[in-house]
Specification:
The chain is 44% helix and 11% strand. By secondary structure, the chain is an alpha+beta fold. Helix 1 (3-15) crosses helix 12, helix 11 (378-442) packs antiparallel against helix 12 (446-487) and helix 11 crosses helix 14 (513-528).
């Protein structure tokens, strides 16, 4: 076994638009109170949590009661943060790298923290509806409980305007607060309420949140293998759908959410803003939908996809209600309470004074230098000079350690390139041999056929094993690229690469220079396109 495979094996172990022109009637009917709801036959799982019936999914994390004896299922979305620090949140990368739609959905930094805290587990969390709002749930919130609820009521509800979607969440929250207040999640005196999701809340949950492997999180879709048809209702076979479908018929995402792609396009809380090359543009526009609709083509459905519509129809002069506009509410809470006020205020002041905020650009060495120059007391000036020296030594030591870590990661990346190239050659050869054996088996008889069949089966088993091994190396390769592109400044990466190439050349280890150069080139591509598929990543590794 080569040193490359030994090294990569250790690293793998360590790394593992159809629109209706008129808005629908507002929710102006009274909702049943709790007494009336209790007299209505309770809904079955096929209406409340249909994924458990239709695809055998595990039960929802939370089910809130509704009028008419109904319910709405929610999933708990964990967001790891430092719970002791009320200002701590989780940074993650939203968007995708393709320039064609970059004005709407290019890469950007997002920050998230859940409304509630799981103290024992050490993470914050929020809830998001497991399914899109259904016809049954919409009927219940309108007080339409007299007619029986049937299979047609499990369809996603469309034809909503943004204003009506907001009103749905308001009316549902008010019903819960009046009839089932204890059913809502709470944190101390902060009680939850329903609203439309923010875009970071929606995208973090759709990508798989903290549960999905970090190397798959940036992907174009939440699944690395499989077909979109396994997870979504969308336009296929050249025929556009003209109506929404029942929820929970397709497979869920890693967090147990159904129909996040296709079917209804889901309304977001905040208005549309363009992506100004990595940040939100200053102009604020119309409403935003996410996830794509049932009439979208496959290429138009991906996690980062965003679409803007006007808030009002220019033809009907009322709020725009899209035929496929739906909603998936979240359970949130207000932030500053009487109990948390002091901790939030004191934490903010301490962080501001320490200069640890993300927007701080103060150079501590430069600040020390100014203090030293301005100090008039000789003894204090000397003390400041000594602190400045100690800080400079510490900073240089830290930069050296960071550079060494970058060099180690680059060397590991070169090893991954070598292994992936070697494995690809072996897989290709073995695949050809297996095909030859299969063809020979087809024309053989007797003992010869039996012997060839044994050889064919052995070749297939070896081929399967090699492909699984290659996928493991590929995921670790992506993890190495992600680490270098996000954890190391560009200047540090460049300095480490230049130093490493010099050291390898001087040591006569030129055999490593080719895969190192290849990995450096791959890293440059990955920085601009972190959402490439595993197939694209493999092609990048073996061909450059």
């Amino acid at each position: 076994m080569s040193w490359v495979r030994v090294l990569t094996g250790m690293l793998c172990w360590a790394a593992s638009a159809a629109l209706s022109q008129d808005a629908v009637a507002p929710l102006d009917l009274p909702i049943q109170d709790q007494t009336e709801a209790s007299e209505t036959t309770a809904w079955g799982a096929d209406l409340v949590d249909p994924g458990t019936v239709r695809v055998g999914a595990a039960p929802a994390d939370l089910i809130l009661p509704m009028p008419c004896g109904g319910g709405m299922a929610f999933q708990k979305i964990a967001v790891p943060v430092d719970l002791e620090n009320p200002l701590d949140d989780r940074r993650f990368r939203m968007g995708q790298s393709e320039a064609r739609t970059g004005f709407a959905d290019y890469l950007s930094q997002a920050y998230l923290r859940g409304a509630f805290a799981e103290q024992d587990a050490g993470y914050s969390y929020y809830f998001i509806a497991r399914y899109e709002l259904t016809v049954a749930q919409y009927r219940a919130l309108r007080g339409d409980c007299d007619a029986p609820f049937g299979p047609r009521d499990s369809f996603a509800k469309g034809d909503l305007s943004w204003f009506e979607a907001v009103d749905v969440t308001r009316r549902y929250t008010e019903w819960l607060l009046k009839n089932e207040p204890d059913a809502l999640p709470s944190q101390a005196e902060r009680r939850g309420f329903l609203r439309l999701p923010t875009e970071p809340e929606w995208e973090f949950a759709v990508r798989g949140g903290a549960r999905i492997d970090a190397t798959l999180f940036p992907g174009r879709r939440f699944f690395a293998t499989g077909d979109l048809s396994e997870y979504a209702h969308f336009q296929s076979g050249g025929r556009a759908a003209d109506s929404l479908r029942p929820v929970g018929l397709r497979q869920p995402n890693p967090l147990g959410l159904f129909d996040v792609y296709g079917n209804a396009e889901e309304l977001m809380l905040e208005p549309f803003r363009m992506n100004a090359i990595g940040r939100a543009h200053g102009q604020v526009g119309g409403l935003v939908t996410r996830g794509g609709a049932i009439d979208a083509e496959e290429s138009q459905i991906y996690t980062a996809q965003r679409r803007e519509y006007p808030m009002f129809s220019p033809r009907s002069a009322v709020a725009l209600a899209g035929q496929f506009f739906g909603l998936r509410p979240v359970i949130a809470s207000h932030i500053v309470s009487e109990a948390s006020f002091d901790a939030i205020r004191d934490g903010w002041i301490a962080q501001a004074e320490s200069g640890t905020g993300d927007e701080q650009t103060v150079d501590p060495l430069a600040a020390l230098d100014r203090l030293t120059r301005d100090e008039l007391d000789p003894r204090r000036k000397q003390a400041l000079s000594e602190v400045q020296l100690e800080f400079r030594v510490f900073q240089e030591s830290t930069e050296l350690s960071l550079k060494q870590a970058a060099k180690s990661s680059l060397l590991s990346g070169a090893a991954f390139v070598e292994t992936l190239v070697t494995d690809t050659v072996q897989i290709s050869e073995l695949d050809r041999n297996a095909r030859v054996l299969r063809d020979r088996v087809a024309v053989s008889v007797g003992p010869q056929r039996d012997q060839l069949m044994l050889s064919f089966r052995a070749a297939v088993e070896r081929l399967t094993s090699l492909r699984a091994e290659q996928e493991t190396f590929l995921l670790s390769y992506r993890a190495m690229l992600e680490t270098l592109s996000t954890d190391f400044p560009e200047a540090t990466r460049t300095a480490a690469y230049e130093a490493l190439t010099t050291e390898l050349s001087e040591a006569g280890q030129t055999v490593l220079l080719t895969p190192l150069t290849q990995f450096w080139s791959d890293l440059d591509v990955y920085v601009d396109q972190p959402d490439m598929s595993l197939e694209e990543l493999l092609d990048l590794a073996i061909t450059g």
